[in-house]
Amino acid sequence: MQGNINGFSKLSKLEKINWIAKTYFQDSSEVQQVIQKYWNQDAELQKLHDEFIENTITNFYLPFGVAPNFLINGKQYTIPMVIEESSVVAAAAKSAKYWSKRGGFKAEVLGTQKIGQVHFMFEGDKSKLEKFIAGIQGDFLTDTQSITQNMQKRGGGISSIELIDKTQDLANYYQLHVSFETKDSMGANFINSCLEQIAATLKYKAENYQEFLVAQQSIDVIMSILSNYVPNCVVRASVSCPVEDLKSADIEDPVLFGQKFVQAVDIASVEPYRAVTHNKGVMNGVDAVVLATGNDFRAIEAGVHAYACKTGLYKSLSYAKVEDGIFSFWIDLPLAVGTVGGLTSLHPMVKVALQILENPDAKELMQIIAVAGLAQNFAAVKSLTTTGIQKGHMKMHLNNILNQFGADKYEKQSVLEHFQNKVVTHSAVVDYLEILRS
Is 397 a catalytic residue? Predict the structure, then answer.
């Protein structure tokens, strides 16, 4: 069967590439050249990248850009962003410059609690289970001491262990809901190690608990794992100014702009179809900084979108209002990020990104990421309620279209001049290129 192979992981990198090329490509030499072109010429650096994941055959590059002029809590930042979508970095930088003249961004961490759970089944008297769990709380902490001692020195560790009854949702289902403080690390490995030890303690103690033995009852541990939903690890970012100060080159009537802006955000609070795209714009900024700083954007995405529907309806992550002549725009985001451990100490460009941010701790990084999301959201809603989203986006996308059709230097210059004051569309660019080439 084509594409089926045994022992693939045991092949050398060149053998893996050879198999891929011969199995899936007619011209195997061409694809081999493309794959090898993306190898790093520094052998040690390439080896480092090869060991990040399994079955590595090459690298996949994304652009690393920066958005300067962010004023956050009175401090200037240049924010690194890793993303492939045109106009995102430009929009963030434009928002940063706009708000730097209006007091800048404010940000505060509202909480840093992270969650893990031990999921188990118990068929028996709930009151006996509650008594049992209360009696072994100290054992949970004692048995995890070897794991938590270093974290405790930094002010972190296990905050609480709570028994949760979920039997109304699923027969016999209970959980130990464990809260953690992980300081400057994201803490996934730390949390999971603690949970597995707690699960082992739970199982061992239950097997030797006299009341369970007499009643012939037992605890069946299903799994223990951290949660990427962190509704108590939240950061708020905001901007505000007198409505009149919203006036700019593309905002002639600041009162009308403020009204339309608030209405646009309100629409995203009641209409899920709009809310998803609205929040995608937020995540353009968030994910770009999360990637640049070596954090897990997939965990962030999952947690943020769960947070967006915490009321039962998927809603806007951001809020806006005009009250007593003051325009306010803010966002609350659940962000579990770290500045130590994981890729932060391995990936050379992550080290560069953190140095550009002047080596923030986890709380400061939470604030920076939230501000990037708010800035991106402001830029998008501002465009939507004034000139429309496509005008700016398509002009930034123009280079991608030209590169797609192999435009030379002369053609690029001619196209840029032609569309300077015209609406850019894919078909219009292609048509004009054909005219030039004819």
Answer: no
| Digit-coded pLDDT (tens) for 144-161 | 999 999 999 999 999 999
Please say if 85 is a catalytic residue: yes
What's the CA dihedral at 303, 308, 311, 315 to 10 degrees?
-170
Backbone angles phi, psi at 42, to 5 degrees: -80, 110
Buried-exposed string 100-117: b where 16+ CB fall within 10 A, e elsewhere: bebebbbbebeebbbbbb
Average pLDDT across the chain, whole number: 93
Q: Which residue out of 128, 203, 280, 412 is catalytically annotated?
A: 280
Position 412 confidence tier, pLDDT thresholds 50, 70, 90: confident
Give the residue-averaged pLDDT of 415-430: 78
Q: Which of 57-66, 327-336, 384-393 has the lowest mean pLDDT?
A: 384-393
CA distance 220 to 199: 10
Task: Find the helix or strand (DSSP H, E) in which 148 lies.
Answer: helix 145-153
Q: How many residues does the chain have?
A: 438
CB 366 within 8 A of CB 114: no
What six digits make up the tokens of 398? Answer: 């123009």
335: tokens are 């962000």
Give yes or no for a contact between 98 and 209, defined as CB atoms under 8 angstroms apart: no
* Element holding 15 (H helix, E strand): helix 13-24
**Which of 205, 296, 363, 382 is labelled catalytic?**
296
pLDDT tens digit sequence for 301-310: 999 999 999 9
- Mean pLDDT along residues 363-375: 98
22 is catalytic: no
Q: Among this protein's residues, is 409 annotated catalytic?
A: no
Largest CA distance in the chain: 92
Alpha helical stretches, state H, 25-84: 28-37, 43-50
> Which residues have C-beta within 8 Å of that of residue 166, sequence separation ≥ 6?
173, 174, 175
* Calculated CA dihedral for residues 335, 336, 338, 344, nearest 10 degrees: -80
pLDDT digits (tens, 9 = 90+) for 190-228: 999 999 999 999 999 999 999 999 999 999 999 999 999
Contact in structure between 380 and 281 (CB atoms under 8 Å): yes
The beta strand positions in 227-368, using DSSP E, are 234-242, 318-323, 326-334
Distance between CA 10 and CA 3 in Å, rounded? Answer: 16
Can you tell me the mean pLDDT for 246-267?
A: 96
How far from each other are the two terminal CA atoms of the chain, in whole angstroms? 48
Which one of the listed residues 13, 49, 50, 85 is annotated catalytic? 85
